[in-house]
Amino acid sequence: MAEKQIPHSLEAEQNVLGAVFIDPATMQTIGDSLEKPDFYNRRHQLIFVAMKELYDESIDIDYTTLTDRLKNQDLLLDAGGTDYILGLSDTTPSIVNLEHYINIVRDKAVVRKMMDISKSIYEQGFEAQSMQDFIVEAEKKIFDVARSRRTSDFIPIGQVTEEVITKTEAAKNKQGELTGLDTGFEEFNRYTLGLQPSELYIIAARPSMGKSAFALNVVTNIAKLQTKPYIAFFSLEMGVDQLVGRMLSSEARVESNRLRTGNLSPQEWQQLSLASDRLQKLNILFDDSGTVKVTDLRQKCRKLAQENRLDLVVIDYLQLLSGSQHYTNRVQEVSEISRMLKEMAREFKIPVVALSQLSRSVEQRPDKIPIMADLRESGSIEQDADVVLFLFRDDYYTKDKSERPNIVDVMVAKNRSGATNMKGFPLLFRKNYSQFKTKAVTYDNEEENSDLIDIDD
Fold first, then answer.
1. Residues 124, 130, 132, 133, CA torsion sign
2. Quick one: which of 341, 388, 390 has its CA closest to 369?
3. Directed axis angle between helix 98-125 and helix 131-146, to 10°?
4. Distance (Å, rounded) from C-alpha 450 to C-alpha 406?
5. Catalytic: 237?
6. Cα–Cα distance measured from residue 397 to residue 363, given in angstroms and rounded to the nearest whole number
7. DSSP letters of 103-159?
8. Which of 237, 268, 343, 382 is catalytic?
9. What is the pLDDT of residues 31-49, one digit of tens each?
């Protein structure tokens, strides 16, 4: 049985280096694309370093300058000698396929790095004290290697222009139809054209404004689409029974307090049964395990993505997540969390929705309307988010004096791809049903502004 060889391509490494003798200008591309460890052969590492030194010093690279540099460093024999260096140009057919040769060298290097990391993980497993910490550290190492994989080439503007024109024509043919996931709220869709792949959405509010209920309403509406999208809902605060209870209350139009006591009329039992049948057909996946580390959350999402069961992620809520390591500064930790949520959206090409608490500074102002500075603990949330929504209830602060009872204003504080609106658009919040509706919609035989039982977020 033949002995297994460490992954590498001697020919590709020779062709990369030989291309410099054919056209010294190619050293710019090679130097930007490869590093010394990417070459497996020791001789090629030395030759590459010498070539790069000459290029950085603006010295023409040819057979004479290269051998002279290596000779002065007493490395000429280690680099294979004069005959080997001279033969590099002879082994390279042309520079037409240089990019291909570079990719081969880099891909083989990534495989070797992954093998080394695997060995390291194997060894560390013998000394692991915490299974959770061991898995997090292993995943981090593998992810760091994965990020070093070949990146895409630059795209000429002509190609991008054609793609934009094609998308514009498609949008025209759709006559204003949504391009993302339909949230079920017309005004929300108008600002975003639906929840878009690769984008991070932040829904922020003070406690008891209804952000969890709003998120559940959006999730239910999206899950009912004909495509039956898969939605992963991570609840770090409430149990799945509480969440589904709210969804049943909203779907069946049965008051949540009556649902908790079980004191239902025959008609309400029937409504509840029908609502249960409808919800059971939806692809909503709950995780209420108390997943705290953002790396754990990402790992679970990656598994769902590999199974083609991930179209939307919702997290309730961001401040209950922790970073991949211990931070003494909470601002730095939240920065890592928000950055990783955005990376998740881009990696899995899905929308990610994270609920967020606003700081208590809102309560200390005469004007309780939230602003961007109220996002707790980090400006990076504002930076990483593509869309930031604020929920605001005037009746929460003014109680019986409010002229707008049971109305929640949804403010578009940031919208990377569209307009903002800090005045907001109003939604009717039926608190005892955990349900949001457009302000014009009310239930049969009900007063729009009836006195309703308040519930937590």
1. negative
2. 390
3. 170
4. 8
5. yes
6. 9
7. HHHHHHHHHHHHHHHHHHHHHHHTT-S-HHHHHHHHHHHHHHHHTTSPPPPP--HHH
8. 237
9. 888 889 999 999 999 999 9
Provide the greatest CA pair distance for the chain.
96
Percent of the chain that is helix, strand, coil (3-state, to 5): 50, 15, 35
As a whole number of angstroms, the distance between CA 21 and CA 90 comes to 10
pLDDT digits (tens, 9 = 90+) for 386-424: 999 999 888 888 877 777 788 888 989 889 888 888 888
Query: H or E stretch including 5?
Result: none
Alpha-carbon gap, residue 133 to 140, rounded angstroms: 11
0.70 cut: is pTM over it?
no
Query: Tokens 């109305």 label which residue?
Result: 407
Is 309 in a helix, a strand, or coil? coil
CATH match of 174-438 with 3.40.50.300? yes
For the chain, the domains span 1-153, 174-438
Q: Which of 9, 16, 7 is nearest to 91 (CA)?
A: 16
The CATH code of domain 1-153 reads: 1.10.860.10
Distance CA 63, CA 21 (A): 7
